[in-house]
Amino acid sequence: MKFLNLLILFCLLTLFSNGQEKLVAIGQWREHYANYNVQQLVMGDQLYGASKSQVFTVNKNNEVALLGKSNGLHEIGIANIAWDKILLQLIIAYNNSTIDIRQGDQVYLINDITLSNLYALKKINHINIQGNWAFLSTSFGIVVIDLKQHEIKDTWFPNNNRQPTITYQTTVLNDSLYAITENGLMSCPLKNNWIVSNQWKNKSDFNNLSISKLLNYNGTLYLYNNHQIFKASQSSPVFNYFMGSIEKINKDKTGLLLTTRNNNKGSLIRLNADYSTNSILDSTILAAPFDVLEDGTTLWIADTVNGLLSHNQKDTWVDLGGPRYNINGTIAIDETNLIAPYGNNNGFGVYNESGWHNYSSIANNFLPLINTSAVNPKNATYWLGAKNQLFHSNTDFQKIESIKLNNSKGEITAIDFTKIGNGWALQDQQGLIQQRNNIWTTVVSPTNFSFSGVHKMIVNQQEQVWIIAPNNQGLYIYQSENYYSSPVWKQLNTNSNNGNLPSSKVTSIVEDATGSIWVGTDNGIGIFQCGDLAKDPCNAFIPTVNSNGFNGYLFQKEMINSIAVDGANRKWIGTNNGVWLLSSDGYEIVEHFTQYNSPLPSDTVLQIKIAPTTGEIFFICINQTVSYRGTATKGAINQNKITIFPNPVAPDYNGMISFRGLVENAIVKITDLNGKLLFQTRALGGQAVWNGKTYEGNKPSTGVYLVFIRDDAGNEKGIGKIVITKGIN
Read out DSSP for 89-120? Predict the structure, then answer.
């Protein structure tokens, strides 16, 4: 009752919004993988599925949860999964041959195969669980895992000469282990789930038939390739299918279920006891079904193009979250949405507080391959570039306007807008295009400038357009007459009096909060603070930092793929060696994340974008996207609203508590209702964080606490309240 009264008191006293948004806590990660390529299903304590990148679960209420490095797994890229019904644990095999065993909240890592140098090929093709053992069919033999001890116990070679042999799948029937290998069907007696040495036999009837899969159904061993199904007891096929390829055979109560595929036309067929067939689902529903699983009256189908289908009274595609495809275009972000062009596939994705939304068409207009995106901050509209066209849409994406720029075949590779809404676009082969009075026109450039291969640019506060020149030619800069009186083109290179770039191969560029231009190259970073290009020289300052007692240029000899600026003017640097967070001046390393100490899927970080109001940082790696909840956000102009997350603070919560919507670098004080100070800190940009402990290192008692906000001048003030619970007192 005391806790209930505190909650009522909190609701009555609240003067400002204390949001419970769908956010992870400060310092937490989440994956944004394209999970439509579902390839395997198993039933355990709930439904488990695997896309090419990660594992997901579907509980009895059809609620989806995603499993990945952000919640304890060790790798990405799923090869196979299996369920241990005795010890209630999930076995996950990855493409790099690492194995995770997930039992409850514990994850046990087995990486012996990955670390071994004995075999060149280590792919795990199948997992077969027998009692307390898991038999892993690999590209060199059968690896036996002790599921109680979570360790490898032995390696079997399905031959009698102990030579590595590609093994595709195993099954057990009548006290014998059967293995489909590169040499055909092999069998060996089992005793207590252990093979009898040197007693492997080859059933030669099935050699050279490209058979790679087995099925034990009602005491009968079936083998199959892409077009034929055999009984092990006879050499002629019992069923032929030449309308496409057989992807997989599973069993249900009444027969065998076949998933088939013919290009992007799929079907689900029931094979009856007399080998007649019934169609369950055809290509009007399925594109590339691979696996099927029966659960009561529901059939679950894994489709490697369209995702997960629930087939019961009606057909329902389950939303697994994530973008439709991997993100290969240039992303854009504002206070509401992340815009993610697919690049290599049609359309784009949009991510916001309600999750991912994918667009292949708008208002019945089919979208082409889209390369780049931008936000016009003046009217919060979105712009997309595809071929020699621009697409323009408002925030609800209900309508889209297409603007063809010119007759050139060059693709739009970059779009940017100034704070006052002036638009600029970069077109391959054509050059720079400017928006004037809603009309896009090409800017005349020097005849010696080549625009073949241009793909990145920014427009700074002074309406200078900084373009990464193609073919390792440094930078092109166009200074418009919108700010300075004289329009001028300029090329910068490594010459000390004409750019002073650390390398002529420029790879990334961004403007920070002070107006400085940070330029990344394949040999570190240069920083520009230039004025009127018609009058003044423009040369980079190359910071020198001390590392292990040696002075060197900032990120010298490092490829800088991307740079982003957070709300505290700190710099996030994406490299081929992970992502780095630098202090605002670049002299201090605050964080360094790699695929080995974080959920980053790859050390090659190609793009970084930061949500200004939440501080969530999105990292586009090779074929994968993840995000991290940072500590800094964009500062508010006026102290009108405080967003506290989480609020109330649950008894088992041990993460950071965030206070958002603050004026820049505000002072934050947390007191009890009697005014006793518990903690004081300063915001990073527009967000402050608190570990939930007092200065003495203790957690406060259950109760309501006050949050006081002010800026250094004392002009912007605010007050909020936070409920902390330690359980029932």
Answer: EEEEEETTS-EEEEETTEEEEE-HHHH--S-S
